[in-house]
Design a protein that fits this description.
This protein is 32% helix and 24% strand. By secondary structure, the chain is an alpha/beta fold. Among the domains are: 178 residues, ANL, N-terminal domain (Rossmann fold, 3-Layer(aba) Sandwich), CATH 3.40.50; 104 residues, GMP Synthetase, Chain A, domain 3. The chain is built from 18 helices and 27 strands. The strands form seven sheets. The protein has a five-stranded mixed β-sheet with strand order 2-1-11-10-12, with helices on both faces.
Length: 545
């Protein structure tokens, strides 16, 4: 069994614990047990996944029963409290079953984004010390062979289960996923400590390797019950676009819809013609999360007035929400409530549809129930309203810490205050607005990308002296990777196509690839010689304005 203590996770003070319990911000309900309960309330509701090439159509009742069968299979395999199971699958029924079954056993689920390459997967498996990996072959092939090779470096990884319809396609040394689900449903749910770890979400941030963000049953149940449920309520069912391995897709798709008693419809890959077809056939709305989802519909030639009319009021976040985009939505009769959070603290602030228009357009809302926020200077001292500084937060849905103890020491202070690394202001009415990022990250389609990791990959190419990757503003994806490079004398700068081929060879996730390569003679620098990336970002913003 994986021992949690070596991670040196933070603990809540007795005072905070008493307050969260007394005010009803925390319950003792384990996440998995709650998910199974919500599914059992409406067994006939549809539970569907869609893509351009395939679909999976089930019901709440069937998903609940399959989850109980998977629990039996995992139990017989020896998986129990504290053991780590990694899911490296696309948006699918199997991925949803993992949330239900693994967390119901008191085990720890590690969902890995399908756009991560095997480089990231190797790191995550080793860092989390996963005992079991459940995966599927990539559409382009070759993934299973790479996984088989990397197992030599992963002593904790005992078994790899492959989701496939053909037994012959499972490589030697791996097992068919059917072995885990071809069992009778588990007879009884085990008792699970709500304070225990239930999931580790790996996200790329300021570090080159993904960060392991540890959530407990309390934090995720609270997040769904109090904060996700405060989002706009659509009359129609919602088609969810983000990967369920990412915090937003997980919360909106797998958790919120069953909690509200709404059908589950989730896309695997945002293919707009398929999105439009599914929306029309099942009378769905969409657009929550990053701007890319709704923006892609607005700008698609096949989207008619009846499709736009089907879109409803939404909460948007995950990356910067441009004011012109909010104005565009409003002009089409769609109210937008901006929100702000992170994988570590999923919902810190949120706008309400009842807020004044200017507040909804220009701020990220106020602190959500139970959440406390402060804006501080570099010494950690509180700044007056209207002054820009780093936002620190705490609340009942705040994560338990990183699996890297050094990061916990760096990003927590006082009585559980989390340093977000984001810069912003709080106005006199308590509305918060993000104005800049202290962290050197790019938020593309709501997914954090480490600029350092991209720079390191770029500098593996011949002819480059230096590289600096910054976030450029994009109405389509929120942000994009803009790579500035310095070239050795006499050398030729690589073209964007050559860079893409290089990144494909090193198997870096496509989501992280830069979209622009720009040659620069000399970087703006600080007196100590560091590149002033803020100047590069400001240049991009100035060009756009």
């Amino acid at each position: 069994m994986l021992q949690i203590d070596p991670w040196n996770l933070r603990t809540f003070s007795p005072e905070l614990r008493r307050r969260y319990l007394k005010e009803g911000l925390w319950t003792d309900d384990p996440l998995g047990h709650s998910l199974l309960e919500w599914l059992g309330r409406n067994p006939e509701l549809p539970y569907c996944f869609w893509s351009a090439k395939w679909s999976q159509q089930s019901t709440f009742g069937q998903v609940r029963e399959q989850s109980l069968r998977l629990m039996t299979g995992l139990t017989r395999r020896g998986i129990g409290k504290g053991d780590v199971v990694c899911m490296y699958v696309p948006n699918s029924i199997e991925g949803a079953l993992g949330f239900n079954a693994v967390t119901s056993l008191g085990a720890i689920l590690v969902p890995v984004a399908p756009f991560y390459g095997t480089k990231e997967l190797r790191f995550i498996l080793g860092r989390s010390r996963a005992r079991i990996l459940i995966t599927a072959e990539a559409p382009t092939g070759g993934r299973l062979e790479t996984i088989a090779h990397m197992r030599r470096e992963l002593p904790d990884l005992e078994d790899v289960y492959v989701i496939t319809e053909e037994a012959a396609s499972v490589p030697s040394g791996m097992r068919n996923y059917r072995e885990l689900v071809d069992h009778p449903p588990v007879a009884a749910l085990p008792k699970v400590d709500p304070d225990s770890v239930c999931a580790i979400a790996f996200t790329s941030g300021t570090t080159a390797d993904p960060k392991g963000v540890v959530h407990t049953h309390r934090s995720l149940v609270t997040e769904n019950r109090l904060h996700m449920d405060a989002m706009p309520r659509q009359k129609r069912g919602v088609l969810v676009g983000g990967p369920i391995s990412h915090i937003t897709g997980m919360l909106i798709g797998v958790f919120l819809q069953p909690y509200r008693g709404k059908p589950v419809h989730i896309m695997d890959g945002w293919d707009v013609p398929t999105v439009l077809r599914v929306m029309r056939e099942h009378d769905l709305c969409t657009g929550q999360g990053a701007t890319v989802f709704m923006n892609s519909i607005f700008n698609h030639p096949d989207a008619g007035p009846e499709d736009i009319a089907r879109l409803e009021d939404v909460a948007m976040g995950g990356s910067t929400i441009p004011i012109p985009f909010v104005e565009l939505c409003e002009s089409k009769g769609i109210k937008v409530a901006r929100c702000y959070g992170s994988t570590e603290h999923p919902s810190i602030t949120g706008g309400m549809l009842t807020d004044p228009l200017l507040k909804r357009q220009r701020t990220d809302g106020r602190a959500l129930p139970g959440v406390e926020i402060r804006v501080v200077d570099e010494d950690g001292k509180d700044l007056p309203r209207g002054a820009a500084g780093e936002l620190i937060s705490r609340g009942p849905d705040l994560f338990a810490g990183y699996i890297d103890p050094a990061m916990n020491r760096d990003q927590f202070s006082g009585d559980g205050w989390f340093h977000t690394g984001d810069i912003g202001v709080i106005d006199e009415e308590g509305f918060f607005t993000v104005t800049d990022r202290k962290k050197d990250i790019i938020v593309r389609n709501g997914v954090k990308v480490s600029a350092l990791e991209v720079e390191n990959c770029l500098l593996q190419m011949p002819g480059l002296i230096e590289a600096a990757v910054v976030a450029g503003p994009s109405e389509r994806t929120g942000e994009y990777g803009h790579a500035y490079v310095r070239v050795k004398p006499g050398a030729t700068a690589p073209s964007l196509e050559e860079v893409r081929k290089h990144f494909e060879r090193v198997d870096l996730a496509r989501q992280k690839w830069p979209e622009v390569i720009e040659v620069i003679d000399e970087f703006p620098r600080t007196p100590s010689g560091k590149v002033r990336k803020i100047d590069l970002r400001n240049q991009l913003r100035a060009k756009r304005s």
